[in-house]
Structures are given as C-alpha cells and as structure tokens.
Amino acid sequence: MSARASITLAALLASPWPASAAQTTTTDEAYPRGQLPATVTPQRYRMTFEIDPAQPEFAGVTEIALKIAETTRRIWLHGNGLAVTEATLEVDGQPRPARYTQVDPTFGVARVDLDEDIPAGPAILRIRYRAPLNTGAEGLFREQVGGDWYVFSQMEPIDGRRAFPGFDEPRFKAPFEVTVITPDVNKVIANAPLASMTPQDDGRVKHVFAPTMPLPTYLIALAVGPFEIVGAPSLPPTSIRSVPLPLRGITRRGQGQNLAYTLKETPALIGRLEDYFGIAYPYPKLDLIASATIGFAMENAGAILYGENLILLAPDAPLQQLRTFGRVHAHEIAHHWFGDSVTPLWWDDLWLNESFAEWAGVKIAHAWRPDLGLGASLITDAVAAMNLDSQLAGRPVHEPLNDNARLNSIFDEITYQKGGGVLAMFESYLGEEVFRRGIQQHLRAHAHGNADAQDFFRALAEAAKQPAVVEAFRSFVDQPGVPLVSVRVAANGRRIELAQTRYRPVGSKIVAGALWKVPFCAKLLTATGSQKVCTLMTAPKAAIDVPEGVEPVAIMPNAAGAGYYRFALEPAALDALLARATVLSEGEGITLADSLAASFKAGELKLAQLIAAATALAEHPARQVSTALGTELAKYDDRVLDASQRTALQGKLAQIYKPRLQELGYDLRAGAYASRPAEEQLLRRTLLKLVAIDARDPEVRHALARAARASLDQPEALDAGVRDRAWTVAVQEDGKSFADELLRRALETEDGLWRQHAIAAIGAAEDPDAAAMARAFALDERARTDEIFSIAYSQFESPQTRNDAWTWYQQNISVLFERLPGYARAYTFDVTGSFCDPAQRASVDRFLAPKMRELREGELELARALESIDLCVALKNAHGRDIAAALAAP
C-alpha cells in the first residue's frame, strides 16, 4: 500500500483539502441513474481504513486496479458522502492528478475527471477520503453498548459507496485486500482470514487480511471493536469439502456465553447445505457477528452480520426464538452459494438471491429441527405475499430496474415470500431430484461469478427436459398478481373443470386479462383416502378427468398447499371440503383458509360464513391452520368495524378459541410446559394472543396481567415464550405506570430478547399517556431502528391510537427521518395504510406525496398504502349489511 495510507486519523481529519481534489456536488448534467457504463471495470481493490469506533469519522484510502476499454477522460463510479482529499490515476507507473465529484447527492453517483486522455488498458485509481461513521445501518456504522463503541458494516444494496469509492454494482466482482488500523483495544473481523497484525508507534494496530475471493461491493464486511470472540472447533473435511472450515462467534463484551447454541448447531446446517448443493462451502472461514442495534441479518461472505437476538440464545431460549434462529441462520448461510458465490448481474435479479435463500433456509431448517414446525413456513409466507400481490400497485418478482431510486422497494414480500413460494411450487411439480439437479448445474456453472435469470431458467430446462415448465416459471416471476382458479365438477361427476383469472379484491381497479401457466394439483378426497391429480394449466380454461375407480366426496384444489394461487369452489363443494377440513395436510389447511379469506375480500363470501369457517378450521390439529382465520378476523376488528361490532366480534373469537386454550391450559410460570411438544407450546402462545389481546377475554387478560406484574421482580413467574403477550396486556391494563417501569428496565438490561419483548409491549399501549410515551421513545436516540418500526406499526394498527399516531407522524416526520437509515425512510409510508376512511386517505396523500418527491423514492410504498385504504373502504361498503347481520346482538 501507499505510505500515505498509514497517516494517523487525527492528522488526516485536520489536514486541509488540496484545491486540486476539492469535492463538489451537482446535478446539472446527465449521469448514470442505474447501471454504470461497462467501459471501465474494477479488477482488484486494495483498501485501508483507519477506524476508531469512539470517533464519529473514519479515514480511508482506496486503490482500484482498473481495466479501461476505450480512451477516456472520465470515469463513472460511486461514492456517497465521502470527503475526498486526493485522487490520482496511475497509468504506466505515472500518477496523474484527478478530480473527484459526487454528482448525485442522494444515491452517490460520482465521476473522476482527468485533464488528458487516458488510453485503453490497465490503470490504478487511488482515492484518499474521510467519511462519517453512520448511526444507522448503512455503510460503516457505529453503536455504543455498555460504554463500549463498535463499528459494523452494512453495504446492501448501495451503501458500500458510503464506506469507500468503487463500482457499487453486483456485476463488478473483484478480489479485495483490506487493511484496518485501529486502537489496540479493538479486534477486527473482515471477509477473509487475518494475515498479519503489526503494532504501530501510536498505540494502534495494523490488521492486514488475506485477499478475498471475487466479491461484489455489497458483500464487503468489517467489524471493529472490543469484541468477545468465541472460537468453535473447525468443521472437519467431508467427502464434499476437502479442508477444515474455521468457525467463530463474535459479540459485544459479556455475551460470549450466549453463542454456545449457535456455534453448536451451525455445523449441522452447513453440512445439510453442502449435501444438498453438492458443493463445498465456498469461502475459507465463517464468522458469525452479533450487533446489538440491528434487527436483521446480512450474508456478507465469510462474515455474516446478525441482530444479536437472532444468534445470542440463552439456555432457556423460547421456541419462537429457536424457530427464527434456524430459519434466518440457514437463509444467510445458503446465500454463500446463492448470491455470494453466484451473484446476480443487476438488482432486477435480486430474487435469484433472496427467493432461493428463503426457500433453502426453510427447507434446511426444517430438516434440522422438524419438531419446530417450520415445514409450512414457505406456504404461510406465500399466502401473506398474496395479500400484497393482490394490489394494482404491485410489481413482478423479476422486475426491470433502471434507476437507483427504486432499489429499496424491491426488498419486499414479493422478492422474498412470493419468490420462495413459487420456487416451492415448481419443486413440488417437477419433483425434488429434478429441481435439485437444475440448481446444482446452475451453481457449478457460475461459481464465483455472475448469473442472471436466463442462466437459471436454462439450467432448470436442461435438468427437467421440459421447456414448457420454464415458460410456466416465467409466467409467475415476470408478471405481478395472483391467479384465481375456479373449480367445479361437471354434471357427470367425472370431470373437474377449471377456469383461471387474476384475483381481484372488491373495489380493485385491476383489469382482467392476465394469464399464467399454472401447475395445478388437486387432492381428491374419498371415503377411504385421497388421490392427487395434476395438470399444467396453460389456457384460461382446462379440465382434469377423475381417475377410474376414484369416487371423490370432496376436492381440495391445492394439493399439499404447494401452489401459488387462490381457488374458488361452488357452495356445495366448499361445504363438503370444510366438513373434512381436519383431514387436510397443514399446507392444504393454510391455503384453504387463505382462499376463504380472499373470497370474503372479493365480496363473494359473507362475514357469517367466514366466522363459520373459522369455527370449522379451529379443530384442525395444526396450529397455523386452526388459528389462521382467527388472525384474519382480528384484522377486520382493527380496521373495518365500529365499537359495538368490535365487541361482538371479540366475543365470537373468544367463543371459538378459548375452549382450545383452556384445554391446553395456560400456566404462565417459567418452564411450566417445557416438556410438552413444541407445536403445543407454540399453539398456546398463538391462542393467548387471539384470546387475550384480540378477543380481550377478561379472565385470560387478568391472568396475564397478574403474571406480568410479578415477573418484574420474580422472573420465574412468567415464561419467556409468552412474556411479550403478558407484558402487552399489562401495558394496556395498567397504562403508563407499567410502561414506564418496563422502559426503564429495558434500557438497563443486557438481555436483548428481554428488551425486544418490552419495547414491543410498550408499542401496543392504548392509554393516551402511555401511548404518547411510546411514540416519544420512538424518536429518542436510544431507540433502535427495529424498535421505531415496532412502535409505529403498533400505534397505527390500533383503532384507539391510530389518529393520534398520524398526528404524531406528521409533526415529527423530519425527526423520524433523521433517526432512520436512508433506506428505511420510505418504509414508514407503509404504516399509513392502516386507515379505512376516504378523508384520512386524502390526508395521507396530501402529506406524503411531497415527502416522496423530497426523498426521491417511496412511490411504490405510498401507492400501496393508498390502495390499501381504498380497498378497505370498498370492503366496508360492500359488506356493511352482512357485517351488521353477523354481529347483531342475539
């Protein structure tokens, strides 16, 4: 590295900017708003960072080996908020002065200008700069915990440019050589193994890391601070991986003991992924890094970053935390094949990363711990995505993108949950082994390189030897919307007639006409068993003959629940199916509940029928089936009903679900049901929410509030698996006194899960003083990003606090935006979709449309929020009479 890279941070921050390299910001000319030109490409990076986590800024020197394809005086690249003090371009060993300018102040497009032509060929660009350590998770950011300061990185999607200048696009993969100089109290973790540590004369230490495999900028990882590093035995070689794999956990001081479970179980997840892909883990080590302030995880190659509640698990960690750990951890490790090794060329194929990691994460986590009930998660997520996919303000899974302003909007349920559900549907249709061969072929062909959707489709076609299936796949990822398949039995009873259209809720402005190639499979229920029948539905209408010898008594139009579509049955056929609902598989029961709810939202089913269906499904043995429609009904309680109707619906929810809760029992003491099956424990947790929080049953609420009060001084009085439920009730029952005490202790605790449960409960406050306190805390600098959203969503969801929350949001939006990372600001638009009133809709539009223009993003989020209000108003109008009839006093 250049000798100038070893300059001290203090000296660099004090030095004046050379006039020849002064940075300006302008938008007076055309510049690339999406992909950069391909005429200059990075071949290798060398980067030196001088970081003291206790200081608000850091210094850096980035050296990029370039390949220039044609003579030029200008290089387009990325850099966002970097105070550049020197820029040079070395050609044939001779440095030439350059001028660096950030031309897009929002999304960090920059250019380097030279005074003379640069010929085609190799060159080295060197840029010296300083930049802030951010307070939110973008670029390099810092957090303070227990008096210690830590620095972490979060580069995806386009925040690498906040940490260093470069070519911040996924197609530009290159090796990185990283050096970090930091005070000697700190430890440093990066993507590659540490190669050397050299003490400096000023009390700092220089950490040099081995070169990485080719990586895109969004996967570069750094963590700097007084970490506790917990080693684990290296994973031994296998028939797939010929070398050991070092494994470590990294966390803030005092939390190392809570990494034991994660380090113990990680080898099993890696082993299952290696076996499935038939390819060794692609990097030389794996570090698992915990941050106290983020609520997500990021798949940085060899150095995954997690919100600490995802990987720090106490010995008595509740089941819902174990479920989240297994699924998220498997997802992030799976990315090392899908996304890290094989990287999309551009963000329009983000789904090749996230859909596959979502699908693989569930598949592997379920195989790891079948008792945790993760197997149906792809189905529950897919039906949740259908609600968003049913709106006109939508987008396809695979979406063309030509503007950086649209990138944050693609990290949504369509990319993750719909994409994962579509993958599961085609795996089911093709068969697991065929699908697996296609995936393995794709990964092997593009290892440590880039690939796009066409590459994947080609691999799948070759493995399946069914080109028509590829076109079917594309019909689901290249267009938005949810197919609705109407099913009827012909008069002779031997033929099932199908018709497809696009699902449209009542009041929707969606125009009919979309067509999918639907892998349709039904289960024919007979007196003695069942028979699966399938067809690839390529036209608006199709038919399936009932096999000889099969006498169906009911039809389940989505066998195993694997299809990404909704269905409609004629009344008699629906009654016959509901009468046999308890024999359906978990996936089938989930999709039946979804299609029933969808029929109500389309105006085809009345509320009384939906309540009756909820009663029938409540007897299903699977937790997610038995409670699905209760959870759906509770949403109408919050948005559609008046006060007297809410009371009536709450009574019906209690009538449906309280008997099951009483049958299970609800002893709230810690460990009371620890020996019971996981599914039973999770069902109890769900029923407690339905009965105590949604149905507001006085008896159960009293028990929860009593245990909550006792738990503050006697932790054994309340099991961690239901703690958030009990604390929520206590905040609602006791008001500000309990909320204040909960917040005080939450800010003092070292237990991240305890704090998460406490803040979630505070966000559900309904008493005006307690609710105002919760909203005030969301603006407090001590509130973390996920806590801000938790409070905001809860306050907007409740009819008791929604209007006050809207006033608060309008009055404090500038402060809120300052508290949030840039990528998260437009996400706050989502909360306003909770309204169900035309006047409020106009207010939301009037206030947020200018904010959207100021942010230069958020168009999709605002459109979805406004459409959500429109659809709710239309639902309320369409069902006014039958709601009144269903909830009239007896």
Pairing-aware structural class of the strands and helices?
A: alpha+beta
What kind of sheet is the major sheet? 10 strands, mixed
Q: For the terminal residues, how far apart are their CA atoms?
A: 82 Å
Number of helices: 27
Question: What is the approximate shape?
Answer: globular
Count all strands and give the number: 28
In round numbers, the mean pLDDT is 95
| Gyration radius from CA atoms, angstroms | 28 Å
Query: How much helix is in the residues?
Result: 40-55%
Low-confidence stretches: 1-22
Strand-residue proportion: 15-25%
Notes on the structure:
52% of the residues are buried. A hairpin with a 4-residue loop joins β18 (297-298) and β19 (303-307). α12 runs antiparallel to α13 and α17 (678-694) packs across α18 (698-711). 40% of the residues lie in helices and 21% in strands. It is globular, with a radius of gyration of 28 Å. The strands form 6 sheets. Strands 3-6-5-4-7-2-1-10-13-12 form a 10-stranded mixed β-sheet. Strands 15-16-17-19-18 form a 5-stranded mixed β-sheet. Strands 8-9-14-11 form a 4-stranded antiparallel β-sheet, with no helix packed on it. With 890 residues, it is an alpha+beta fold. It is built from 27 helices and 28 strands. Residues 1-22 have low confidence and may be disordered.
